Structures are given as C-alpha cells and as structure tokens.
Amino acid sequence: MINTLIKIWRKSFMAINRFEKVSLSILICVATCVVDCDAQTNDFKDFLSGCIPNKTIVKKNDSVESETTFLGCIRDEKWRIEYYVIKEFYAVPAARVRHGHSRIIFLRGNKNLAATYDLDSPDELPYELSQNCLYFKYKRGGKEQIQRVKIRDSLPAPICVMPDGCYWPIKFKS
C-alpha cells in the first residue's frame, strides 16, 4: 500500500499546485503511520503466541535494530489477562548517527494495543514484571534505587520510572 502511494505521489507531485502537494504529503504520512501501527500490533500478536515471560527477540531489518522483550501479563483477581506488557528499544539511522527509542507497550487481553509510554533512555525501561508490578532501577546519590509501579484495573497516567521521571501514555481506542 505504501509503495503504491509513493509511486502515485512521485508521478503526480510535479503536476499539482502547492496546496495539493501539502495535502498529498499529509495523506501519505497518515497512511504510513496507520499501516506501521497495524504492522507493529500484528508483530506483537505473533510475538505473544507463546507467552514466555522475559522472552527477548532481537531484529535487524532495513537498518532498524530492535530488541523487544515480553515481560509478562497483568491479571485481574479472577486471573484473567488484563494486559500483556512488552518493553522495546529500537534504533533508527538519522544522518550519520543512530537515534534510539525506548518504550513500554501495553496490549489488552485481546492483544489489541492499549497504550505505549515513550521513555528517554533504555536505562529507564523496566527490568521486571512481578505480581502486577513493574520494577525500574535508577541511581540517586551514587546508589542504585528501585521504583515499583503497581498496575491495577487501569493503566497509570503517568508512569513514574523514578521519583522525578514520569511519562504520560499514548492511548489507543478500545
């Protein structure tokens, strides 16, 4: 789909006015985002088929490197899965350097995307999920500290990975 849109864009770009060029460029960006988000969700569905906690998959394709780890499940009091929790770090080329992205991904029990939290550094990603709590390590005064975030019925807004480091979610429709 994206390749088709790019071909149409290239052929018609020279023959249209400025307003149409901007509109077409916006359409291509939106289509790219929708297709990319759907593809990522499908990737996670495949990734979760075994539901093995702490399973890590390292991928490298089209110069994008990623490391994705399934941390486990958040369950309700009846032991039903509320959320699947995944941490991911990926690096993309940007000019002559690589630009890294760290995020925590929550999928609903039906494996649809619920929310993502984009973090500043891979060091801020959680290292463990246990008894519906995410555990983060951080340093304060030269000592390693642990931040525990309990997840109940709904996702926290924000998630604080350390006392002064909180991140707001990007939420998706049910």
Task: Explain how this protein is built.
The chain has 174 residues and is α+β, with helices and mostly antiparallel strands. It is 24% helix and 46% strand. It contains two helices and eleven strands, in the order ααβββββββββββ. The strands form three sheets. Strands 1-2-3-4-5-11 form a six-stranded antiparallel beta sheet, with no helix packed on it. β2 (64-75) and β3 form a beta hairpin. α1 (2-13) runs antiparallel to α2 (18-47). The two termini are 25 Å apart.
- Counting helices, strands and paired strands, the structural category is alpha+beta
Uncertain regions: pLDDT < 50 for 5+ in a row? 1-9, 22-41
Could you say which overall geometry the principal axes of the C-alpha atoms support? Answer: globular
What is the string of helix and strand elements? HHEEEEEEEEEEE
Profile the largest sheet. Answer: 6 strands, antiparallel
Average pLDDT number: 79
Number of helices: 2
The strands making up the biggest β-sheet line up spatially as 1-2-3-4-5-11
Beta-strand portion reads over 45%
Radius of gyration: 19 Å
Distance between the termini: 25 Å
Number of strand elements: 11
The helix fraction, in percent, is 10-25%
The oligomeric status of these chains comes to single chain
Secondary structure elements and pairings:
Layout: H1 2-13, H2 18-47, E1 55-61, E2 64-75, E3 81-94, E4 97-108, E5 113-119, E6 128-130, E7 133-140, E8 143-150, E9 159-162, E10 165-167, E11 170-171
Antiparallel strand pairs: 1-2, 2-3, 3-4, 4-5, 5-11, 6-7, 7-8, 9-10
Helix pairs in contact: 1-2
